[in-house]
Amino acid sequence: xxILDHLLHKLxxxxxxxxxxxxxxxxxxxxxxxxxLFNYACKTRNRYYGNKVFMRGLxxxxxxxxxxxxxxxxxxxxxxxxxxxLTKEEIxxxxxEGYKLGYRTFVLQSGEDPWYTADRMVDIIKxxxxxxxxxxxxxxxxxxxxxxxxxxxxxxxxxxxxRHETASRSLYEKLHPDSSFDNRxxxxxxxxxIGYQVGxxxxxxxxxxREEDLVEDLIFLKSLNPHMIGIGPFIPHSxxxxxxxxxxxxxxxxxxxxxxxxxxxxxLVPATTAMGTLHPRGRELALMAGANVVMPNLSxxxxxxxxxxxxxxxxLEDEPAHCRYCIEGRIxxxxxxxxxxxxxxxxxxEAKAL
Length: 354
Prior knowledge:
Layout lengths: L2 H12 L4 H10 L2 H19 L2 E4 L1 E6 L25 H13 L4 E6 L7 H14 L4 E5 L5 H10 L3 E3 L7 H7 L5 H14 L2 E8 L6 H14 L3 E6 L16 H14 L9 H6 L3 H6 L5 E2 L25 H14 L3 E3 L6 H8 L1
Parallel strand pairs: 1-8, 1-9, 2-3, 3-4, 4-5, 5-6, 6-7
Helix pairs in contact: 1-3, 2-9, 3-10, 4-5, 5-6, 6-8, 9-10
């Protein structure tokens, strides 16, 4: 057994490698080793969730953002962005359509828009839960105060997505000139303490990112042990300071998806839209590398083109029903099974059964 095979087998058996071993693996992995890595990742996923892919309905309800992250198309400095906000009634309409299509998880995502105060968000959450009591609500609305996170949780939101973006402090600070690395990490820890099913995640191929930085992501995630982990390639947006830089690749992202699956074996890992943007079968490839979640868009078609964190995003004009059945076909094409349930983390389901 060569050194790469040894490291992959060790990672599969123990769900952990040292920093030095991970760096060596990333710097030396070859095509044969990638195939073995993806096979191990799928076996690990199936141990916890079987052959199922969980579908969430994504509602992008505002593209207004107070932050100025260098890579993001809806950053506050992008004066060419056409801004919008959905009303509570419009959000509920999206949920109604999604519910009819079988969705039992709604992901409410926005920029960091201060118009949606804690009181407004609590009202939206409670309104959704009153109308659809059996659904799970996931929020992805950025950094908030602990009291706000607590209020959202008590109102009925059970999950919160907050990508850490990169675990390298120096890289984070370069990309987020108006943000605090420590505050980002503290928000994730606070969310876990409150009781949310928490999602973190990072981008692959950021300008200046090294293998050592990606290893820090893996080590951080192992320590945080989040319930969900979103990983996607960096895709440049022309109306940002990084618009002319080189983006990430599907190939590198697949490796990180699989390594993350092995380091945090029971996590829920999306096959992201960004992967489908870079490759016609990008989401299918991610599923074959250990992912097990997809998030089709339920947002009104009139606003979808306005919510572009990166350019050339796919499915902007598709109707929700089309997205729902198109992705189901993609899931089946790789021999996996669609699951339209809430798709909770397995430990949450165990706790609820007690």
